[in-house]
Amino acid sequence: xxxxxxxxxxxxxxxxxxxxxxxxxxxxxxxxxxxxxxxxxxxxxxxxxxxxxxxxxxxxxxxxxxxxxxxxxxxxxxxxxxxxxxxxxxxxxxxxxxxxxxxxxxxxxxxxxxxxxxxxxxxxxxxxxxxxxxxxxxxxxxxxxxxxxxxxxxxxxxxxxxxxxxxxxxxxxxxxxxxxxxxxxxxxxxxxxxxxxxxxxxxxxxxxxxxxxxxxxxxxxxxxxxxxxxxxxxxxxxxxxxxxxxxxxxxxxxxxxxxxxxxxxxxxxxxxxxxxxxxxxxxxxxxxxxxxxxxxxxxxxxxxxxxxxxxxxxxxxxxxxxxxxxxxx
Length: 329
Ligand code: PEP
Ligand code: MN
Hints:
Blueprint: E1 2-5, H1 11-20, E2 25-29, E3 38-41, H2 50-54, E4 59-63, H3 70-74, E5 79-81, E6 84-86, E7 93-97, H4 104-115, E8 121-123, H5 141-153, E9 157-161, H6 168-174, E10 177-180, H7 188-196, E11 200-204, H8 211-223, E12 228-233, H9 249-258, E13 263-265, H10 267-271, H11 277-287, E14 291-295, H12 313-324
Parallel strand pairs: 7-8, 7-14, 8-9, 9-10, 10-11, 11-12, 12-13
Antiparallel strand pairs: 1-3, 1-4, 2-3, 5-6
The protein binds phosphoenolpyruvate and manganese (II) ion.
The site of phosphoenolpyruvate has 10 residues, from loops.
């Protein structure tokens, strides 16, 4: 059982009231987003009807569920990231930037052009998960600084990936949202460490993860303190090499419609082909995506990673204009 308390609740009194009813409080979470305290009771507690718990002064809402991911279920809808609301029914958010942060000039130029088009978050990898150890691995901590500077200059937020536990602190320092890459979706030690940073997290779906596994990865983050989880569908492994991956829009519609969760789509990694980014971006929003993450480059042919799927920043403008016009869901 999870009880969400009112902002002004006397936590100690609520705990006593629960204990009197045989409910053992297992964890007390103070959401970084500033909402009410979250109390979770142990599965061995006495069964008490939800309305009796809801009547305790200071309790705002009660969730009694057999769901394996109660915190994901209880995540506020919509999710608020500062002044931005993310979730079904909200205006889709745009996240864009290069695959890798290559130089201060490259990220500045891309940021400058994206900032004209309502892109809320500047993305770019400082640490890159590459299939081959001989491929460009990213410029590391230097790139984090370049990314932050470019975002600050043009009034954008930053989302970037923490590839390993040893990078969580420095990524958390510069990022407004920490990205968990596909290949790390079930790296449970990393999920715990990123959760403890108490930041919002962009959780990319692993290329062979079931929806349940994806939701449970979100549960790891939230149960360790993450300020919120935005799910990101980026294509699962298909059999056909014509596209890099297979965009699972069914899962997007499921998360948005059945679970009411904020799920965004990355049509760049989903297809691996720049000419498919816009059509699948549109399809994603039509299926219920709460936003898009699109890889852009000012010189797509020169990109140090994922050049084949990079589009010029102005392509994002086209999509932004359509979304402003009210893409239907
Ligand atoms: C990325 O978004 O930079 C990335 C590496 O994507 P994925 O983890 O989905 O492959
Ligand atoms: Mn990439």
